[in-house]
Amino acid sequence: MRFAPVLALVAAIASLGVWFFVRRAPPSVTPIEHPSDAGPAPDSPPPPLTVGMGSDLASAPSKPRPTRVERAPGLTEIKYGAVTVTLVPPAGAALPKSLSFDAQPSGFVHAPKPLPAEQDDGSWRYDSLPSGRWRIRAFVPGFVDASKDVDVTPDGEATITLLLELGGAATWKVALATSQIPELVRVALLDGRGIPIDGTYQTAATTLHASPSSVPALPAEGSVVGLKVGRYRLRASTVDGDPKEQPFEVKAGETVRLEFTLPR
User: Residue 145 CB: number of other CB atoms within 10 A?
Assistant: First the structure.
């Protein structure tokens, strides 16, 4: 029993230690939750995510970058000049009252095409043509088409003379085997050997000069004008049908009439 005092002393020391630590511990406090301390609302966007330096990502969410608008380069100021056209028919031949002109630019696009005005001396004048090279073409009934190139300079005055030659024309009229009249047909002019050549096609609505590489779609009635004296062939077809050809001969001052009956 000699160990009893020792055990009692140890128990007393342990009780004293427990009492000491209980008094030193802070009282338990329930924290008050503030709106600023609360987490994000279920429907609110997530907080910004900051990415460290050196990262390839930017902070999220980021503001959209403004769209960059490229300005069109400045347009070059157009300079204008004037061209006077004089028509000279063969000796003893008179110019008809009805005639037309076409000014075709070379190397640039210009629209709408200008029209010349008749002068008191019988010439025709383009007051304002953009500077550059132009091809002036005259369509004069009873004469061969005449054209000439001219260089128009800024504020310049150019003069050209077109020598006219007596010529002829040929009209076409196309119908189907069913006696129906097609809405549009393709017409091409060929020389006497059957080689496609340039042609000037005239209808009730317009006058069109076309190259061999361009076969225009035209009304079922019209005429080929400005032809030199000689032998030709005219090819006609529906827009998607087989063509037919007719030979004809042009004489000065005459108009040949051609009629085509095409299969459906």
Answer: 21
First to last CA, the chain: 138
Q: What is the pLDDT of residue 48?
A: 47
In the chain, the percentage of residues whose pLDDT exceeds 70 is 69
- Nearest C-alpha neighbor of 129 from the set 97, 164, 104: 104
- Identify whether the C-beta of residue 137 lies closer than 8 Å to the C-beta of residue 149: no
Those residues with Cβ within 8 angstroms of residue 154's Cβ, 6 or more apart along the chain or in another chain: 79, 80, 81, 131
Token digits for 194?
A: 């059957």
Task: Say if CB 86 and CB 136 are below 8 A apart.
Answer: no
Of 215, 204, 200, 210, nearest in space to 144 by CA: 200
pLDDT tens figures, 59-96: 344 444 444 434 445 456 789 999 999 999 999 999 99
Least confident interval from 19-33, 124-138, 160-174, 187-201: 19-33
Burial of 152 (0-12, 13-18, 19+ CB in 10 A): buried
Q: Are 160 and 135 in contact (CB under 8 A)?
A: no
Name the nearest CA neighbour of 173 among 142, 194, 204: 204
Rounded to whole angstroms, the Cα distance separating 175 from 189 reads 19
Taking residue 237's Cβ as centre, other Cβ atoms within 10 Å add up to: 20
